[in-house]
Design a protein that fits this description.
This protein has helices at 42-54, 85-125, and strands at 21-25, 32-38, 58-65, 72-79. The chain is an alpha+beta fold.
Length: 132
């Protein structure tokens, strides 16, 4: 079969020296770089592109996945020249990491509260009106 092994779709090959992200300056436009992210798909491409568009120094951001069987996302990012595309990329990634950490913390807190409430109801305290 022509399909690659499943693990090849998400594991980087150290023997080939694969890097997760590479930057290539785009010669056609000033202050523009192409970022190639290996072993990813539309999920990360869309997430990053939409957050890049919200950054104050970004003039244009977009992504494409060349082919569904090639786990590679190309993101093109153009800035206004006050900062480099790489600086915006790093800044947005740091913001996303902070947002996702906050989401994980909120989720864990809510899960623990619901678990404690459910355990209290099962210990004989009864239903919502205090009756069993």
């Amino acid at each position: 079969m022509n399909a690659p092994d499943r693990f090849e779709l998400f594991l980087l090959n150290d023997a080939l020296g694969e890097k997760k992200i590479t930057e290539k300056p785009f010669a056609g436009m000033s202050n523009t770089s192409d970022f190639i992210i290996l072993k990813e798909d539309h999920t990360i491409g869309n997430l990053l592109a939409e957050h890049f568009k919200q950054h104050q120094n970004v003039m244009m951001a977009g992504y494409k996945v060349a082919h569904p069987n090639v786990p590679e996302v190309l993101i093109r990012l153009q800035t206004d020249g006050t900062v480099t595309p790489r600086e915006v990329f790093v800044d947005v990634c740091k913001q996303l990491i902070a947002q996702l950490a906050q989401l994980a913390q909120n989720f864990t807190r809510e899960y623990e509260l619901r678990r404690m409430a459910t355990a209290g109801e099962q210990d004989g305290q009864g239903g919502p009106n205090g009756r069993q």
